[in-house]
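Hi R.,

Quick one: here's the SRCR domain-containing protein sequence you asked about.
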Amino acid sequence: KFYKYELYSIDNHSAEGSCTFEDIRLYDNGEANQTKGMLQICDGVKWTAVCDYRWRQEYSVALCNNLGHTNP
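And here's the predicted structure, written out as tokens:
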């Protein structure tokens, strides 16, 4: 868990039930992407965007690690 973040519902053509609660992904140009894109988290039914002006570098590092990447 990163911290308390704000979630915004978005339409990304993801079928309901196609994700598991608290799964994360990067989403770019209409598809999941391993290296770039908008951060999304699953609310248990659909993907939602994580939008927060308080985002810090350590959250990006944690996200990259969670996606299987090493620290930059």
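The CA atoms of residues 31 and 66 lie 19 Å apart.

Cheers,
M.
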